[in-house]
Prior knowledge:
Helices cover 36% and strands 28% of the residues. It has helices at 24-31, 83-90, 105-121, 140-148, 163-187, and strands at 3-4, 10-17, 37-42, 53-66, 69-75, 95-101, 126-131, 155-157. Helix 1 (24-31) crosses helix 5 (163-187). Strands 1, 2, 3, 4, 5, 6, 7 and 8 form an eight-stranded mixed beta sheet that branches. Strand 1 (3-4) and strand 2 form a beta hairpin.
Amino acid sequence: MNKISAAGKEIIKLVVAGPVNAGKSTLIRSVSDVPVLCTNELATDDVAVLKDYTTVAMDHGLFYPDGNREIHLYGTPGQRRFDFMWDILAEGAAGIVLLVDGSDPESVNELGYIRGHFDRQCALPVIVGVSRHDAVAASHTDSIAADLGIECGHVMAVDPRSPDDSKLLLLHLCDRISKRETAGATAA
């Protein structure tokens, strides 16, 4: 559930999760309106083949899309051995952004595991961002949606380096959260 700050802003907590090298840290850095808190360390295992540094606890950034909302972004580590952090970071979240490297079949398979983990822990709205989508057919987002059992409209191609792409993805999820909360309030 979202909160209202003392300044009257709606505070929305989103978790940004996904496999290693999907673009989680990059997405947060591309939209954050404050310096991002990162817990990156030198990659020393099989991740070192993909990149020099990897997130070991979390990334945190703030995004102010307008004068009424303050979006807190919490990026998770992508490695399963840090999955205890996924649960910690999901506490109190309003939604989950799942990122996946669309050009890497292993990343797509791992996303299924990560989605299942979050589904077992919490029932939150989810949106999937497919990075490196330029390396695959446009229909690939549809197949990822089908594999995950997610509506096609909730799987989007995204370049995490692009603030515009990243903001669009985040705001789409915030709209879903708002509609869900409105529907829940009218049902009560």
